[in-house]
Amino acid sequence: MKAAILYEEKKGYNGIKEYSQWLYDGLSDSLFPSFIPIKSIEIKIGNKRLFGDTTKKLYNKFMNLKKYDIVHQTSFFNLNKYADITTVHDVFPLTLDAYKKTGYTIIYYKNALEKIKKLKAIIVPSNVVKKDLESYIDTSNVYAIPTGIPDLNNNYKNPYPDNNKMHLVTVGSIYLKNRKGRKRIEELFKFVKQLPDVELYQIGNIDDPEYVNYSENIINLGFVDEYTKYSYLKYADKYVYYTYNEGEGFPAMEAMKLNTQVLVNDIPVHHEILGDKAYYFNDFDEFIDNLYKPKKPGLVEQISQYDNWIEKYIKIYNEIVK
């Protein structure tokens, strides 16, 4: 079987970019797929990035992928005409008020969903996403397969200072107020500011000046390389996360794969993926109640149950090719 993994080229940390690399690496043990980027040229003016989507569409249009038996596009945007299968990571922005106000994202998502209806298969990372899709497309050919986290064992070094404080880490950016997305990192900041015995290390950008140097016990690391990210995840006392929704939630899974306790807000997808191995909160009081609780057993095992995801993908590929 000649397979191609088609992915959108992106700069910096991005969950779909990480997923695409893991998929390629996993398939390389058996299928030896081609790893093909959909390239783009962006021009940044102020805080805006322009022309990226336009150049992706043009590049995608002239790609010839006839020689492949399976073309798996790892994002359902800018769908290539040769794609047989795509991954839909989530459709949450369709319900987000910030995007509804602009209208552009809603149209963009709905147009993309309309185009995937004729594909041979669609993969989603959770049953939560599959249920969300039921409002937009027929889900008879949709497969819910959580993405497995690869082996992260490495000679990581403890990056935290020896200052007798509890060290927390989170992953997610803070956008300008008119660009709020799914993350609720701002609310974590407000929680932690009240806790002098705690330090929160945030991995991600801060666009909103209100949250730059927000508190002495909150340290912004910006975007970091993978080794640094995993070092902070591995040696944290807890990984904490606040979000409106997720398709799956890689950083929390990565933390648990590194045997770090996670404390996340109480939403269905977290329960589906993390099970009873996470601590959950709905408000500040529950956050505090769970923050000082001990590490639960079986964190690594909870995430390792998804390690067979590549085998499940190959089974779908084989069914499509028949």
Write up this protein:
The chain is of the alpha/beta class and 322 residues long. The strands form three sheets. A six-stranded parallel β-sheet has the order 2-1-5-6-7-8. It has a six-stranded parallel β-sheet with strand order 11-10-9-12-13-14, with helices on both faces. It has twelve helices and 14 strands.
**Can you list the strand order of the major beta sheet?**
2-1-5-6-7-8
Order of helices and strands: EHEEEHEEHHEHEEHEEHEHEHEHHH
Number of strands: 14
Q: Distance between termini? A: 11 Å
- Estimated helix fraction: 25-40%
Biggest sheet layout: 6 strands, parallel
Mean pLDDT metric: 91
Q: Strand portion, in percent?
A: 15-25%
Q: What is the 3D shape?
A: globular
Q: Which structural class is indicated by helix and strand composition?
A: alpha/beta
> Helix count?
12
Low-confidence residue ranges: none
Keywords:
about 325 residues; 12 helices; 6-stranded parallel sheet; about 35% helix; alpha/beta; about 20% strand
Short note summarizing the structure:
This protein is an alpha/beta fold. It contains twelve helices and 14 strands. The longest helix has 13 residues, at 15-27.
Q: What order do the helices and strands come in, and which of them pair?
A:
Layout: E1 3-8, H1 15-27, E2 34-38, E3 43-45, E4 48-50, H2 52-61, E5 70-73, E6 85-87, H3 97-102, H4 104-115, E7 121-124, H5 127-133, E8 142-144, E9 166-171, H6 185-193, E10 198-203, E11 218-222, H7 226-235, E12 238-241, H8 250-257, E13 262-265, H9 268-274, E14 279-281, H10 284-291, H11 299-304, H12 309-321
Parallel strand pairs: 1-2, 1-5, 5-6, 6-7, 7-8, 9-10, 9-12, 10-11, 12-13, 13-14
Antiparallel strand pairs: 3-4
